[in-house]
Amino acid sequence: MSAGGEQAALERIDRARRRPRAFRDTHITTAHGAGGKATHELIERLLVPVLGGGEQLAALADAAVLGVGGTSVAMTTDSFVVRPLRFPGGSIGELAVNGTVNDLAMVGAAPLALTLSLVLEEGLETEALRQEIAAAAAAAKSAGIEIVAGDTKVVGRDAADGMYICTTGIGILDPRAALSPAGARPGDRLLVSGPIAEHGVAVMLARGEFELGAAVCSDTRSLWPAVAALLDACPGGLRSLRDPTRGGVASALNELAQASGTAIVVQEELVPLAPAVGGACELLGIDPMYVACEGRLLAIVAAEEAGVALAALRSVEGGDEAAEIGAVEPDPAGIVLVQTAFGSRRVLDMLVGDPLPRIC
Amino acid sequence: MSAGGEQAALERIDRARRRPRAFRDTHITTAHGAGGKATHELIERLLVPVLGGGEQLAALADAAVLGVGGTSVAMTTDSFVVRPLRFPGGSIGELAVNGTVNDLAMVGAAPLALTLSLVLEEGLETEALRQEIAAAAAAAKSAGIEIVAGDTKVVGRDAADGMYICTTGIGILDPRAALSPAGARPGDRLLVSGPIAEHGVAVMLARGEFELGAAVCSDTRSLWPAVAALLDACPGGLRSLRDPTRGGVASALNELAQASGTAIVVQEELVPLAPAVGGACELLGIDPMYVACEGRLLAIVAAEEAGVALAALRSVEGGDEAAEIGAVEPDPAGIVLVQTAFGSRRVLDMLVGDPLPRIC
Q1: Residue ranges with strand state E in B46-162
Q2: A279 lies in which domain range?
Q3: Contacts B81 to A, Cβ<8 Å
Q4: Is residue A215 part of a domain?
Q5: What digits encode the pLDDT tens for the residues A120-161?
Q6: What angle do CA A195, A196, A198 make, to 5 degrees?
Q7: A51–B150 C-beta distance less than 8 A
Q8: Element housing A99 (H / E)
Q9: Distance between CA atoms of A306 and A308, rounded to whole angstroms?
Q10: For the segment B4-45, what is each residue's pLDDT rounded down to a tens digit?
Q11: Per the CB < 8 Å rule, is A26 touching B130?
């Protein structure tokens, strides 16, 4: 992108952000569930204001933090509506546990207890339900979180895509964690805990809608071990964590850049990407930066701690491809830029609309 | 029912309860979501064993109780899938808050924080969503619980009946509460906080499938004020609380009778029932004892505290029709009996199958 092109893009984004903040869409569309701009508008312009905009909600972190007695408790909720229910590397039951465990981990909370609420479609095979409950139980055991309560509802045929699972988790905030979506400061470094876009591509391919034979597995896993390793290694230098799920790395970084009023510059050639995933994205015409991960984290860390932090991420199972992929700059505030191997830069905006098949 | 008929019914129930405890249904049906026997079998024979049957889950209380630091915290979850979304006296947003607040209240926990997870159907009108979010916010304010986190997913057309809401709540256990589903002892009294079956009948009539013009409003409300009044009035004499939602009063009392190994005998003519509700049930051919309430509680209290407890229930807004409706006897263990005004008794078994239109 030329310097003039970048300037035009920045001005366009700036204009969009200054638009009146009413929610004007008359109907809900799949874009509102895609994790990008439309989702943010729904949350920021309709849900938070109508709910009264409490302090916790307005912070829009992955999890709320509450005082309970003398203890800081994190709490988060997530509904899982993935199709197909099972895909290479995982399934909805496993995803529903790991997804909520990870939202707790992103605020620095050790997983404590989880609830599991099922909406089942009439006609669902019992065996499919049994498999997902077993998958959830195994994921909970592996993540060290106890499933303490549940609920089951049954809805009519064709009214739930087989099953939906809502999980809600609570965790104990690690006292060493001082994380905030607004924590990034110029000079900080950006790390990622492993290759990106694997979950989203695995689910898209599992649908069989594309004639691609690539073997791609979801990356779903608990991220608490990685967070615990970071807190052990460099608690003071750890600014912000995000797991780039819906909307992918691009949307997660935009949230961090906007919250902190900094620019985040990603070095494209440093971003770990499996060849099969990169190839599938190219054939499907989608940018892997917008594709969901379900077991990766992005960490903003102080420059002087970047080496220790990277070593910590790599010390954890599944973290051997962790990498430093960028840095925080003062300007342009609130913007994410991708720098190519050839030195050119382009703006990496938040996901607009819903260009991808719904995958979570 | 003759004495011989009662004996035959008891033997049938006993045989059914001694059946092998494997879950044999190959597919999920609406009966598994109706709150009666099929729901219990799904939970006890499939979900709890496959989840590993942790202590909390196996207790099958309305909410789990966890130690967090030095504080006892209750946690519960519930998915709401009601159609239509709005009905006389309430709507899904209000119901989703009150339902979870009430599950906390039933273990003696004061509401603290709530999460709200939405599954929205593509094409839903924004105005309908706004109304339900406003209803949830108002109900939360009224119940004194803060909505701290949320999530939104969008699914395809016809894949969510407009919207589903999953709420999860945490609350602080009142140190005076010593409640247990197994708490009933022979001689104890049974109280109900108001007229029964109103929510279920209101929703059934709101569907317009029946040619009945009766004006019936849902009873949805927070039950924490009633529980707080009971804890103030007679903490030591309060054995068990249940809010009779899915499966109605009959299913809730069966759970208490089975857990405590006692008989619960209900005096039919003492059960408060609005004439319009009783009339609608008669025309629809359903027993109001099986119809859901969403703002009533059943309390088992020590005989010597029954008067104080009833006065406490009546002192609370909406509680002026609270009544003592029965007593606990030693035999037949695990059975609920209804005694008619004429002195005959019949077994009131748990709901079998799904004879009612799905209403929650």
Answers
A1: 64-68, 71-80, 86-87, 90-91, 109-121, 146-155
A2: 189-347
A3: 119, 153, 155
A4: yes
A5: 999 999 999 999 999 999 999 999 999 999 999 999 988 888
A6: 100
A7: yes
A8: helix A92-106
A9: 6
A10: 667 877 887 777 666 557 888 999 998 898 888 888 888 888
A11: no
pLDDT higher than 60, residue A247: yes
Phi, psi of B137 (to 5 degrees): -65, -45
Q: How many contacts, defined by CB atoms under 8 Å, are there between A and B? A: 275
- For A4-61, what is each residue's pLDDT tens digit? 667 877 887 777 666 657 888 999 998 898 888 888 888 888 888 888 766 666 555 6
Domain contains B85: no
Chain A residue numbers touching B66 (CB-CB < 8 A): 112-113, 148, 170
Q: What distance in Å separates the CA atoms of residue B73 and residue B52, rounded to the nearest whole number?
A: 22
- Domain count of chain B? 1
CATH number of the domain that A286 lies in?
3.90.650.10
> Do residues B350 and B279 make contact, with C-beta atoms less than 8 angstroms apart?
no
Which tokens hold the place of A73? 């408790």
A135 located within any domain: no
Is B359 contained in some domain? no
| Mean pLDDT confidence for A313-328 | 97
Do the Cβ atoms of B159 and A160 come closer than 8 Å?
A: yes
Q: Which residues of A touch B113 (CB under 8 A)?
A: 64, 66, 75
What pTM, to 2 d.p., does this model score?
A: 0.91
Cβ contact, residue pair B52, A79, below 8 Å? no
